[in-house]
Structures are given as C-alpha cells and as structure tokens.
Amino acid sequence: MAKESIKKAVFLKSSSKITQCPAENKPEVAFIGRSNVGKSSLINMLCERKSLAKTSSRPGKTQLINHFEINEHWYLVDLPGYGWAKVSKEKKAAWGEMIEAYLLERNNLVSLFILIDSRLEPQAIDVDFINWAGQQGIPLALVFTKTDKQSKNKSDSKVAKMRKTLKTTWEELPPIFTTSAVTGSGKEALMDYLIEITSL
User: Fold this and answer.
1) For 74-127, what is each residue's pLDDT tens digit?
2) Is residue 49 part of a domain?
3) CATH number of the domain encompassing residue 54
4) Rounded Cα gap, residues 200 and 197, in angstroms
5) d(CA 5, CA 56)
6) pLDDT tens digits, residue range 8-32?
7) Residue 108, exposed/middle/buried by CB under 10 A (0-12, 13-18, 19+)?
8) What residues make up the domain containing 122?
9) Residue 191 placed within a domain
10) Which of 54, 91, 118, 176 has its CB surrounded by the most CB atoms within 10 Å?
11) Smallest Cα–Cα separation from 112: which of 88, 132, 97?
12) Report field, pTM of the whole predicted structure over 0.85
C-alpha cells in the first residue's frame, strides 16, 4: 500500500501562458511526454478517476497547461505532449514556447515527470528533451508507460537501454519508474514518491 493516496482531485483551470496559471502557493509536479505515450491514462490511474485528464486516440489532445489540485495540498499539471501530433508548425512552436516558459519560470515546480513508451528503443526526441531539462537544472523523473503491452523482460531491456544512453551525458540518473495504467503496476512506488516530494 502506498503511504497515502489521492483522495481528492479537482480540475482547476487550463492556461495558454504561464501568467494565467494558479498562484505559486502549493508544491507542483508536471507530467509531459511524447504524444500518445499514455499520459492522461497514467494521471487518471494515479488519481483513481476515469476521465479526470482527457484521453484520446488522437495525439495532441492536451493543448494547454492543465492544473489539478490534489488533496487540497499540491498541484498536478498535465502539459501538452511533444512529438508527432498532427498540428501546424506554428502551433507546435507556440506549444514549445509555452512549455519552455512554464518549465523555466514556474517557481513552485518540484519535479517534472517525463513519460516514455516502454515498448520503444531510446528515441532521440525523448533523450534530447531529458538532456535539455537536465541542463536547465529542472528536477525530473522518468516514467516508463504501457508495460502491460509486453513482457517484463522486454520492458526491462528498453529501460536498460535508456539508462545506458543517458549515462553518456548524465553523472547520476534521475529516478526511474515503470508503470501500466491498465494493470496499476508501478502505481504504489510512483505515488509514494509523489507524496514525498510534495510534502517537503
């Protein structure tokens, strides 16, 4: 059992720029990943809600900075995905500027959770984003998703390959979690970590 669960999760607001975000009066964690990585499903699993975060088979559903208040004590933020969402270059550029401003200027952000599809070989777009966030000094953790789609050995192999890839640029790797929104695997460890970092 996790030390504590999410008993109350309330959607607060969607923002298109950092100045519209809620006051920086609570610890905040943010989730980001490639389009279609299973971000909304993971958030719904953690919050034990079926449709708190909007899921879609069409990548690019999340287009704004979405704030949820958790247990009246901390914020969970659902950020737009990066990758192959079918939107215009102008829209992608605007998303990029919005996300970068949020990550670099949001003072109450205690951790950025970067989601990675456990079925894939290390992707340059993920590695580049992880390295960029690390270089900016953004505290982060890696969450491998969709482990139910393959054997544990295959998931472990992909995680090991990502570790090896990152070790070429990282002295000490960020925390790493493996999860499945379908089976609930990894929820306890991730939940314990969330509660720990938002209680400091």
Assistant:
1) 999 999 887 655 667 777 777 788 999 999 999 999 999 999 999 999 999 999
2) yes
3) 3.40.50.300
4) 6
5) 25
6) 999 999 998 999 999 999 999 999 9
7) middle
8) 9-198
9) yes
10) 118
11) 132
12) yes
